[in-house]
Amino acid sequence: MPLISIITAVHAPGAAFLSETITSVRRQELPGGWDLEWLVQEDGADPCLESHFADVPFAAYEPNGAQLSIAETRNLALTRARGDLVQVLDSDDVLLPGALSALIPLFDDDRIHWAVGQADDLLPSGERKSFESALPYGMIPAGQVNSWAEAHGGNWPVHCAGLAMRTTSLRALGGWIGLPSDEDIAMFAALSEMSDGYNFDGVTWLYRQHPQQITRAARTRNLGEHCRRMALQRVKAMRLMNVQFGERRATGFGHDTHSVDVGPAAKVQPGI
What is the residue range of the signal peptide feature (predicted)? Predict the structure, then answer.
């Protein structure tokens, strides 16, 4: 049975809206024959959020046991993913009913490595604010997203917090890049440069606006320009080296890339 893995990084100081996020995942319906796992990874040296997921049967919680970063936390969750697809969901955002059932069938086309639905801003008042997509709807050829970003000051027209992706494609890129900000943009820049994707004409999730957002923090804002520059530099390097996913076609579902055996770390002596 094919499986989709939702990955959510959680952190206690930013967990005020977690109950709404959990409710939104519970309400998801899946296409026939599909199953769901929710990989919740808590960042921080003093984890305290496990109880929120105790009665969610498809949730698999794990703490970092240390203060890391969003990229590192998501990547640790990715090591546990068993799904053919990965859906990103932040702990303060909301998946609308029908989100997964709308996006999953798009991957029946083996040219599609990523897909995203439209997002409304969810304002503190509870109101929703919609936006017109800067990209056409439907199939997005490899490289088109980054060409748009290059022409618009290193700003991407796709909100990466709502991405669905093939797990094998995400792993082939090394997951989320180790940057202090915009780690998802730097990952997506590489993914969308190497593969075709799909811009779905429908609102599938809500992006919550609130004062505690990480993207509003001064540290994040101050470093964002450097991190987006890194994303564009990555794209230029990939083009120079002609880095691509073969014929840009995926391998379908049912290919096991998660079951590997790893033993204790051992120092290998030179010459042995």
Answer: none
Tell me the two tokens of residue 69: 């970063």
> Which of 2-20 are b and which e, b meaning 16 or more Cβ less than 10 Å from the residue's Cβ?
bbbbbbbbbbeebbebbee
pLDDT range class, residue 214, cuts 50, 70, 90:
low
Domains of the chain: 3-241 (3.90.550.10)
Which of 74, 75, 87 minimizes the C-alpha distance to 36?
Answer: 87
pTM of the model: 0.92
Residue count of the chain: 272
DSSP line for the chain: --EEEEEEEEEGGG-TTHHHHHHHHHT----TT-EEEEEEEEESSS---GGGGTT-TTEEEEE-SS---HHHHHHHHHTT---SEEEE--TT-EEPTTHHHHHGGGGGSTTEEEEEEEEEEE-TTS-EE----SS-SEEE-TTHHHHHHHHTTS--SS-GGGEEEEHHHHHHTTSS---SS-HHHHHHHHHHHHSEEEEEEEEEEEEE--TT-GGGSHHHHHHHHHHHHHHHHHHHHHHHHT---TTS----S----S--------PPPTT-
Query: Which 3 state secondary structure label does DSSP give 245?
Result: coil
CB 114 within 8 A of CB 165: yes
Cβ proximity of 85 and 164 under 8 Å: yes
% of the chain at pLDDT higher than 70: 92
Can you tell me the distance from the alpha carbon of 121 to that of 129, in angstroms, rounded to the nearest whole number? Answer: 5
